[in-house]
Amino acid sequence: MKNKKLAFESLRTVLAIAISLIIALITILLVSDMPGAALKAFLFGPLDSMRHFGNVLEMMIPLIFTGLAVGVMFQADQFNLGAEGAFFMGAVVSAFVAIQWPMPSFIHPVVTIFMGGLTGAVFCGIPALLKVKWGASELVSSLMFNYIAFFFGLYLINYFLRDINAGAMVSFLLPATAKLPFIIPKTRVHFGLIIAFFAVAVMYFFNYRTRWGYKNQLTGFNSLFAEYAGIKTAAVVISAQLIGGFIAGAGGSIELLGLYRRFSWQNLPGYGWSGVIVAILARRNPAYIPLAAFFLAYLRIGADLMSRQSDVQNEIVAIIQGVMIVLIAAAGFLEKAQYKMVFRDATKDLAKPGKKTQEVEG
Amino acid sequence: MHDDALLRMEKITKVYPNGIVANNEVDFSIRKGEIHALVGENGAGKSTLMRILFGLEESQKGRILLNGEEIRNDSPHMAIANGIGMVHQHFMLVPSLTVAENMILGVEPKKGLRIDLQKAINETRKLAEKYNLSVDPLAKVQFLSVGIKQKVEILKALYRGAEILILDEPTAVLTPQETKELFLELKLLKDQGNTIIFISHKLHEVKELCDRITIMRNGQTKGTFNISDVTPTDISRLMVGRDVILEVVKDTAVPKEIVLSVKKLVMANNLGQTAVKGISFQVRKGEILGIAGVEGNGQRELVEGITGLSRIAHGEVVIRGEVVNRKSIKEIRNLGTCHIPEDRMTYGVASEMTIEQNILADKFDAKEFTGMILTKPKAIRKLSQKLVEEYQIKCSSPLQEVGMLSGGNIQKVVVAREFSSEPLLIIADQPTRGIDVGSTEFIRNRLIELRDKDSAIMLVSADLNEVLELSDSLIVMYEGEITAYFADASKINEEELGLYMLGIKHQTPEEIGGIVYEK
Fold this sequence. Notes:
The structure holds two protein chains of two kinds. By secondary structure, chain A is mainly α. Chain A is built from 14 helices and no strands. In chain A, helix 5 (107-134) runs antiparallel to helix 6 (138-161) and helix 7 (192-209) crosses helix 8. Chain B is an alpha/beta fold. Chain B folds into three domains: 5-240, 3-Layer(aba) Sandwich (Rossmann fold), CATH 3.40.50.300; 246-336 and 423-519, P-loop containing nucleotide triphosphate hydrolases (Rossmann fold, 3-Layer(aba) Sandwich), CATH 3.40.50; 346-421, no CATH class. Chains A and B meet through helix 8, helix 9 and helix 14 of A and helix 10 and helix 11 of B.
């Protein structure tokens, strides 16, 4: 029964993806004068060169981090968007540490990433504290805090790290000692990918093999029950937010150290939001996060290539994402089919002689 | 089949989305003007069958015939239009409205654009008189007792033109006196030509009230009989498929030292009202202290105070010599306390997690099951397998989701977890509510066993039979106070108990003081 349920859930996800892709394809056919080229770039563009495939992998990295971060917070039933601000603030503080605290290589990125993580943890911890202390909705407060993070971050860059000679509002150059090395030749795929996979493994163990992760799940599924069993749910909620914030912050830091010469973001990068999509696609299970991140990254790079090579804009991805999330999140989608399956199964069991309906009276 | 059937359900099959087959080709028919009992264990499918009849559930197969003609009850509206009314176990009334306003809800008599309240009041009064169901149409529902609320529910169904009344375990919430009154009213209803379907667990009530009986088991009907043709033993055998001993066998208790001591405890409920009004009692090793009372008389708040779920307003709770007022739930559990919660789905389990994960809930940081960082899956599996076997939890494996189990088996998961921590103090709140006879018997025997192994047990139950059977001594709670104490529960008369439960009788403070053995 359980396996069947899992299989059905997977089928549902796949079908949701398929339907959203079909809608995207129809849209392309409708709006484009060169649909053939557009489709080819969209679907196969990421595979046509090492460089393009490298783009997919490099985009995967931040998605894995924010996906994991959002996932662990969802696990504790904390539906919130703090990962966005944590990712941004992690990068800001990392820029500061990288530029202002000279250190030898090897140690420099480690310290920088750690500080980025701590920043993210503090940032996501605040909505949790507000929730536990005063019952403030973590969804609303985390959303608002993202704006605080954004403007506060820009302020820090502008007043403390800005390179006046650079012409735009960007920081000084990041020192070479702090940068993460590229690991695949002819691409910009950096060491962060390895850290990301390591983080996936750690979170998988955290979830299913530690009591901490167990408490996290129990609280997420039924916090009243967790409380009754003697778990301090307030502490669990806060720790989930701290862990999630740390991962998101570290992710922001890694993104900066891996791909950028200077801190140059003028907008929130949006990876926190994407993390929500990744976490939902992966169904809370850390093991599926890389898969979901890869898929989303592939779509985005494909769309990007399509917009460069044809007359279709890459906003098409937004349509795909939207339809996909609606279908996956909608509990009613395919419910009838599932119900039919259940009904068939249940009555099949009854037909077998000597099962369930056995007569015992005599 | 009977040709004189007023209503007939044929080959009804219902499968719930979670795969549970609640009804499997069920045939059921009733005659005009009878009181027809529908009995069966919990999970036998009685409620489901009635919910289908009332249009609350949709069956996958089967049809319903009224006077020989097929009808469709896709919604309660259609069922009501067909003259079928239902009184639910949990009342469907708006507490802040008056009786008359509740009566007309959805079928308001109009005077122009306004609701004709006077007409509603008059009609309520007329109907109440006709069926001798005495209620005040102007009273607010929230101030009514459970028994009266039930009358309002019955009137509501009659007002909507119901001629077939479904009563889903109506006596579960009533005192013996109220039950008697209800039976008189139902008989009157019958005499006036109405037909009643009476769902119940309680065989003696069925014997007393009903004309015919249909027995269900495992989603199927096991036969329909004239009530005079079957004995309670026959019925119970058909219900469970074996002879159940409905009486609990136990030796006299040998109470030892005091484990739990409640001193002048005051608790507030979630509305801020005082729900427990300074009560004192003690529970000793090796005895079961029963707490009887109509639900909502402070029992829940009392349990929450002892187990640490709610803050204590005043007074003290002492467990094994330690004041626990300021202790956390975990610390109270570590003193050897376990707790079977009243509402298992809210407090007792996480239904989307596996049996094993649920069993682990109170042991997650025991050295046995978890190391410095990682948990110990083998030890955990061993425990869950052992408990599943020992408690006869019907499941495919310990990795099955708890939500997929039947009520009785879910309760067994709760009980298995709580009892496996070798408790010294057991707070059992409605331990067998709404579960099948087999599981009930199992859990009750388990409680006796633990008592004999020197656990101190406080049993809160709204099931009179249960408190009387299990308890060694007994207290009665009424409106947050203890109104009676019986040192020997086996010598209590059920009628007398009812008087204490309703607050009609009250022992003297000296008599009640007997429950405090040592100051």
